[in-house]
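Quick one before lunch.
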Amino acid sequence: MSILVTGGAGYIGSHTVVELLNNDYEVVIVDDFSNSHPTVLDRIKELTGKDFTFYELNLLDKENLQNVFLENDIEAVIHFAGFKAVGESVSLPLEYYHNNVTGTIVLLEVMKEFNVKNIVFSSSATVYGMDNKAPFTEDMPTSATNPYGYTKVVIEHILEDLAVADNEWSPILLRYFNPIGAHESGRIGEDPNDIPNNLMPYITQVAVQKLEKLSIYGDDYDTPDGTGVRDYIHVVDLAKGHLKALDYSLNHTGAQAVNLGTGEGYSVLDVVHAFEKANDIKIPYEIVKRRPGDIAVGYADPTKAKDLLGWEAKHSLEDMCRTSWKWQKNNPQGYKE
Ligand code: UD1
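Model of the uridine-diphosphate-N-acetylglucosamine complex:
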């Protein structure tokens, strides 16, 4: 029996595949390399000493996806594949809805055809929208501010509707807070296309002198130092959360949304200072205007993950800063050498 991992060559996907292989799961990866690089597959093999099956494929290619299910005995799916750049989704809404939502529908149709009804979905804390107040709990109403966010909201609804229509489905909707950090080895990590949109990859590219200075988006929020507060979570903790969710899905039915966060909020300046301290590097920055769509404060109530899945985050912000830097320093061009 195998676990199908869509988007398994991506940042969170690759760290999750390492955990799966280390825990003796058989893994089948489907990835179209739209935001990842083939080198990551070699690195996963190097780190784990284990092999897996790989298909270069987009989920919209139904016929070839059916072949993946014909050729492998798939027991459950961990579904990461999707576009994820907020700004780009505003310019390319059709591409985002088609790739993310239609791609997921095709995947679910094929799963149904092969009677595979266990799925762990890569959702996001972005579904808490602008109106909820942190700490966010899973029962809060969901919304979004951009097409990327709406694709997560819509896919969550699709999975919940599926579990209502057929009580054999067991979708777990994992709402990630802000994943940063990298594998302890420094061999796999986050490798954004072009200029990073997110805070930590921007900081590490300033540290490696690919970018000149960090722009901090606003210091006039209602927070202790005026900069935005988020719940940063180490990607390896996040990856381990997927194994717990997979286990839960395989042993229960019905849909469950679960936050994966630490429950702790840090400001942008906290992260900059933690990075400087952990790695002994100065990060030049300037304060600029707020980024549209940003909230002031977002962090998880992680109680449900602990009660339902038996999972909690273990790594500190220092670990996150140290491993992010180790990855970037050892791979200044990411996977593109
Ligand atoms: C962002 C997305 C969110 C997505 C998540 C996944 C937006 C508005 N939100 O979350 O939908 O699910 O990434 O990766 O893009 N910051 C700076 N300078 C920078 C970059 C960020 O000051 O160059 C600040 C932001 O204003 C924010 C914090 O750092 O306060 C974290 O930003 P980021 O890493 O982009 O994550 P989110 O905005 O929380």
